[in-house]
Write a structure and sequence with these properties.
Elements lengths: L7 H26 L6 H31 L1
Helix pairs in contact: 1-2
Length: 71
């Protein structure tokens, strides 16, 4: 596995994009979760949205830690 060395500017760009994507998945999952009844397809969609949201959150933490180590 190749470890890439990113500049602070590149890390900040990635963080900005990840935070936007996380917010989008958060909004979509919150909207869907407000329903009182779910079709099987909606249940799958909600689980996938939450999984994607968690993946984005993990990546945000990773890049924030890279920034801390750069300081």
């Amino acid at each position: 596995m190749k470890i890439e060395k990113l500049s602070v500017e590149e890390i900040n760009k990635k963080l900005f994009k990840l935070k936007e994507e996380h917010a989008k998945f958060d909004k979509l999952s919150d909207t869907l979760a407000q329903k009182s009844f779910f079709t099987p397809q909606e249940e799958i969609e909600l689980k996938m949205l939450r999984k994607k949201k968690l993946q984005k959150k993990d990546m945000i933490s990773y890049y924030e830690n890279l920034l801390k180590n750069e300081s």
